[in-house]
Amino acid sequence: MKMYFSQSPNTSRVCEEDLTPVSLQDSLKKTRQALAIAYSGFDNALDEDLIDSYIYEINSLQKRYKHLTELAALEMEPEGQGSGQHSPIRALVSHVFS
């Protein structure tokens, strides 16, 4: 989700969101990048609370990545072999990681 800010005379900031769909491959790439950033932050954290937050973030991103790879595997199956249903979470992932 891309955020666009603009100035207007009546308001200090206006926020518009770009809600264009993100491909599964883009979601996987962005999740890998977010994991690398979280691992780097964890490696450099000294505060106990900050370390805990990085652990939580890494666990969350690992679960997201696992889900996305499972979706990718389903998409690669020949037609008729998969369940034919897409996860409703995929739309959410598109918005979160764009």
What does this structure look like?
The chain has about 100 residues and is mainly alpha-helical. The protein has a domain at about 25-80. About 60% of the residues lie in helices and about 10% in strands. The chain is built from three helices and two strands, in the order ββααα. The protein has helices at about 25-45, 50-75, 90-95, and strands at about 1-5, 15-20. A two-stranded antiparallel ribbon has the order 1-2. α1 packs antiparallel against α2 (about 50-75). The longest helix is centred in the middle third of the chain and has 29 residues, at about 50-75.
Give a quick precis of the structure.
This protein has three helices and two strands, in the order E-E-H-H-H.
SSE topology string: EEHHH
Q: What fraction, in percent, of the residue positions are helical?
A: 55-70%
Mean pLDDT across the residues is: 78
* Main β sheet profile: 2 strands, antiparallel
* Strand coverage percent: 5-15%
Counting DSSP E segments of at least 2 residues, the number of strands comes to: 2
Write the layout of secondary structure elements.
Elements: E1 2-6, E2 14-18, H1 24-44, H2 48-76, H3 89-96
Antiparallel strand pairs: 1-2
Helix pairs in contact: 1-2
What are the key terms here?
98 residues; mainly alpha; two-stranded antiparallel sheet; 3 helices; 2 strands
